[in-house]
Amino acid sequence: MTKFGASFRQARTSKGISLDQVATETRISKRFLTAIENEEFQLLPGGIFNRGFVRAFAEKVGLDPEQAVSDYVRMVEVRQPEAPAPPQPAHAAKSQRGLYPISVGVLVLVIVVFYGVTRESGHIAQTASTPDTPVAALTPKPTPAPPAAPAAADALSLEIDAQDQTWIRVVADGKPANPGEILQSGMNRKYSAQNELIISIGNAGGLMLKLNDKPMKAIGKRGQVREIVITPETAKQLIAR
Length: 241
Description:
- The strands form 2 sheets. This protein has a 4-stranded antiparallel β-sheet, with no helix packed on it. The protein has a 4-stranded antiparallel β-sheet with strand order 3-2-5-8, with no helix packed on it.
- It has helices at 3-14, 19-26, 30-37, 48-61, 65-78, 90-128, 135-138, 235-238, and strands at residues 156-162, 166-172, 175-183, 188-193, 197-201, 207-211, 214-215, 226-230.
- Among the domains are: 3-78, lambda repressor-like DNA-binding domains (434 Repressor (Amino-terminal Domain)), CATH 1.10.260; 156-238, Immunoglobulin-like, CATH 2.60.40.
- The chain is of the alpha+beta class.
- α4 (48-61) packs across α5.
């Protein structure tokens, strides 16, 4: 870790400000603030939202916001993906090519033996049966399988209609249903879950939401970053009256 994340933590603690307080006043999820201090940038939503989060965080703790954004961009550009796996040695590839004719020969031999055994077994079975006994009578009747249990209906159904450009991320029952996407005006998405839906939004005023086919209450203003946790217990509180 470099001094980038440490500078945010040091500036924040020197002012006696907690992460919860920063999250409340900047409307940025505490999880994203922690990711900035720990330099775990892969946990951030990506794109322009990352730079906006860094700038707002820096302003709140008294750091130069433009310098903070510049340092963040430079760090992200420096980090390179993992190197590709080394090419297979030429002698290994040559050895594998040498084994190919042997493998084909073995496969042909297995097929010939299997065909001979199957043909012989069928001949023996045919001569052993009596002419008076139909073959169908010797075949056991299949047992009917029990009917499959009906799948449980989803307790939560969320519809998203974008009125303005905004970023979203959705987690359904602990599994990512949408790892992160920028919706344009007019786009819509649907998600469902049994126990919990978590939706992170970069522009709360840019979405119209329906929960279980009923309009939800307004979740924020334009440009406001929000994270909403929806469960069967809290669903009634989120639906507009």
